[in-house]
Amino acid sequence: MSPTVRQYSGQRLRPDPDRVISRLFLPSLExxxxxxxxxxxxxxxxxxxxxxxxxxxxxLAEFGxxxxxxxxxxxxxxxxxxxxxxLSDERVLLLGAVFTSEYAIEGAxxxxxxxxxxxxxxxxxxxxxxxxxxxRGIGEGHFSTLQFTSAVVDAEExxxxxxxxxxxxxxxxxxxxxxxxxxxxxxNGGEYDELTSVILRMVPRQVTGQHLEQILVDLPPDLLLHPxxxxxxxxxxxxxxxxxxxxxxxxxxxxxxxxxxxxxDESNGLEDARxxxxxxxxxxxxxxxxxxxxxxxxxxxxxxxxxxxxxxxCRLSGPGAKNKGMALFPRPIRGKQLALSRADGVTIGVxxxxxxxxxxxxxxxERPSAPWQIIQTxxxxxxxxTPRGWxxxxxxxxxxxxxxxxxxxxxxxxxxxIIGRLRRPLLAPDEHAGYVPNVVFSCGALKHAGxxxxxxxxxxxxxxxxxxxxxxxxxxxxx
Length: 479
Hints:
Elements: E1 6-7, E2 20-24, H1 36-46, H2 49-63, H3 70-79, H4 89-98, E3 100-104, E4 109-117, E5 129-139, E6 143-153, E7 158-160, E8 171-174, E9 177-178, H5 179-188, H6 194-202, E10 206-207, H7 209-218, H8 229-240, E11 244-247, E12 258-259, E13 269-280, E14 283-293, E15 298-305, E16 310-315, E17 327-328, E18 337-341, E19 348-353, E20 363-366, E21 376-379, E22 384-386, E23 389-398, E24 402-410, E25 418-421, E26 440-441, E27 446-448, E28 451-458, E29 462-469, H9 470-478
Helix pairs in contact: 1-4, 2-4, 3-4
């Protein structure tokens, strides 16, 4: 008998076009080489003082409540176009407004949730658990951001908490890249030669942009005379610059924090983060693999965070990190970190890593077979440990590109061995309309009070929640 699925129809998140964030706006360079940004600066400088004084107050009044520290945002964006130093603060603010735009982070769609324990468990009744839910917001241009909300669950209910207040993008700073990862990124890019070999021998175990630039200054000039040297150096700079840390203010709430693209390979969006709380002995932190998209190619990245306020992001490498859709096991197994992978775009595999950054060749474990997954299959979030095995919620793509959710159970000691799988989907679309029709999709589930809670996107347009009794599901998988 199939497990009974409970739907929480009253708890549904819909895209909210009022959830906006400020972004630097720079007009494009128009042929023949017209510098439109400089023309805009000149126009603002030409406005007389009385008009500036007249324009600014209503502008700040209209947009000030929509953005945290709007004055600082405008001053920062004005500084990007290098205005004259003797401008009044009022004119700087107006100039900043000309180079600022609002972006509705979920103007098109809200989808693909993942869920973990919230770092703040204060103010709850007995039996309740507060959870952090990551969400993929899609806006104009199919541009994706990573945002959050929270919910409170108990044995019977799931209740989303409010999503209110101004959004913010955090403070981005550069982070170091491990030397071994840097070497592999360069090799994978096909730019490994004598010059890169010399540089890699000279860099420390953790490499920053400052380290690299100092090494370039100290190199023998002859090494940089090769016709391809500039390309090799550019590859190294981009690889070192790909790691960053994003920090949000201490007084910000989780639902106000938005992770925007901050590296070249994710310039068109951060997609489908799969969060877990990774623990290794006394060490615990939040980790998530996500898809980086630059408008042309995709790749896997890793987010780490001690508290969901400070996030560090870096690229992943190796055969197991190809394609998209990686999901981490929450603890090492037999001394290695493991992840579910879909390196071939079709099959679920298990890949391993010594450091969590370079991933080996995956072992295929689940190929498309049943009708509901005949096109392709993949995980729908990190594995969940149960006494009977690793529970994996999975997705499958069937006829008419219909996405459904199923489940399988993996051996605790050898996750490449499948103990059981559902013959039919656990959740299938019951609504056809949406930003992407005929889809139910999740990036992570959670166990609590004897139930498995699965937040999921419907039609890549809204987010809802379902649950099943955990023992019923495990009985079906092992029966």
